[in-house]
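Researcher: We're reviewing a set of sequences before deciding which ones to prioritize for further study. For each one, I'd like a predicted 3D structure that I can look through quickly. This is Transcriptional regulator. If possible, include the structure in token form so it fits the rest of the review sheet.
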Amino acid sequence: MIGNKIKEVREKKNMSITELARRAGIAKSYLSSIERGIQKNPSIQKLEKIAEVLDIDIHLLINKSDEQVPAEGLDPEWIDLAREAMESGISKEQFKEFLEFSKWQKQKNQEK
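Model: Here's the predicted structure for Transcriptional regulator, in token form for your review sheet.
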């Protein structure tokens, strides 16, 4: 998903993958792996560099919808926690597993 958005914006701006990689200061092979969906969890730092070169808000790359900014009323602490999790390298799958474990643990405690 992120890779598709990067490629779409890059192509709309008539920018080659080589040029974007060079201007963002990242390896062309790494950028290519993001665009092709091989690298599914790129670091927030790399995404910030890419977004800056493409002159777009990073939220356009991160959000599933075409929304460019977080929804109003979304707790900024949750945004910070999600960003921190991403920066630490936690995958979405690992985060989902943690949530499921927490739900299971809560349910077990309520049954006691």
